[in-house]
Specification:
single chain, about 0% strand
C-alpha cells in the first residue's frame, strides 16, 4: 500500500517509510530462520541472533544516508505532492505497525528486541509522515516532505545504531 501511495503522492517521505519497512521485513525473515533452526536443533544460537541484529542495524545506515541525500536535493523544489495519498498511505502504514508492535511486545532475546524496536520506529516514521501530510495538503509540499524524510532517516540511524551497539556488546537475551 505504501508503495502505491508513493507512486500516487510523489512523496519521498512515503518511500522512505516504505524502505524502512522493507528492511524490517528482511530482519523478520532472518529472525524466523534463526528461530526455526533453534527449534530444529534444540539449541539456542546467540551468535546467529547477534549477527542478524548487527546486519539489521548496519542495513539502516546506508539507507538513511540515501534518504537524507535524496531528500535534501528536494529543497530546490519539485512537482506537487498529493497529500491525500500521502496521508492514507501513512495511516495504513501506522495501523499495520501498531498491529506489529502489539504482537512483538514480549521480548526475550536480541532478535525479538530488534523486531520490536523496529516496529516501534516504523510507528514513529509513519506518524511523522502522517503529521506531514496535512501540511502538504495546505501547500507546503517540498519543505514538509523533505523534513519528514529527514525525520525518517534520523529514526533509522538511531534505531540502527542502538541495535548495532547491543549486538556488538553481546546482548542477546532480555529478561
Amino acid at each position: 500500500m505504501e508503495f502505491v501511495g508513493w507512486i500516487k503522492s510523489d512523496s519521498f517521505a512515503v518511500i522512505s517509510d516504505s524502505m524502512h519497512v522493507a528492511v524490517d521485513f528482511v530482519f523478520f525473515l532472518t529472525g524466523v530462520r534463526v528461530a526455526t533452526l533453534e527449534l530444529k536443533t534444540g539449541t539456542e544460537m546467540p551468535d546467529a541472533r547477534r549477527v542478524g541484529a548487527y546486519v539489521h542495524g548496519v542495513m539502516f545506515l546506508p539507507l538513511a544516508m540515501f534518504v537524507a541525500i535524496a531528500a535534501s536535493k528536494r529543497f530546490a523544489g519539485q512537482d506537487r505532492i498529493d497529500g491525500t495519498w500521502m496521508f492514507f498511505s501513512a495511516l495504513f502504514g501506522l495501523l499495520g505497525n501498531i498491529w506489529q508492535v502489539r504482537i512483538s511486545r514480549r521480548v526475550h532475546n536480541i532478535t525479538e528486541k530488534g523486531a520490536h524496536l523496529h516496529n516501534l520506529t516504523d510507528c514513529l516514521a509513519s506518524a511523522v509522515v502522517l503529521v506531514a501530510a496535512p501540511l502538504v495538503m495546505l501547500g507546503a509540499w517540498a519543505q514538509v516532505d523533505v523534513w519528514a524524510s529527514l525525520g525518517v532517516a534520523l529514526v533509522m540511524v538511531v534505531s540502527g545504531a542502538l541495535l548495532i551497539y547491543e549486538a556488538r556488546n553481546g546482548h542477546t537475551h532480555h529478561h
